[in-house]
Amino acid sequence: MNPNLKCSCAAHTAMQPVALAEALLAVQCADCEGMVMAMDDWRAWKAGDTARLPHAVDDELIEVFDTTAVRHCPACDRLMQRLRVSAGPDFRIDRCVACQNLWFDPGEWRAIVSRGLAGRLDELLSDGWQRRLQTEEVREVRLAALRRRYGNECIDELDRIRAWLDTQPHRDELLALLRAD
Ligand SMILES: [Zn+2]
Question: Residue 63: is its pLDDT beyond 80?
Fold first, then answer.
């Protein structure tokens, strides 16, 4: 990681080295507390001793301060891509495609570690992962709209009936029966 990076936040201060994990360094802005990590450093770290990959922990107390504004890469000033970490109203991490730098807002790296994703960043950043999350997100939005429209009790009952129907060997005939006058 370039040790002379200046943060792209308003303070524009020089970023300082910070340890993300054993043998994994990033740089951090003392002002906005954002961190920049080079994917190359992460790859070298992952390829090393697997025993030092942090384990997932149940840490509900992590506060993530995700900035929704687009961010400029501190190294090259290009706009960074915002990538989903999971489906739903969650945070996103920023990536500079040109420099292969990741930006973590305060709490984001810790949240990634706690979910057991610290060693899986390459998967998380892949098109497949991102597409899957997008599909999940669309489905969740649709389901939330249905629940608002018909009420939770109705949708729960529908789910129960659907689950039961799926166990029936004559599922399609039963469905046709239901629809018949
Ligand atoms: Zn860049």
Answer: no
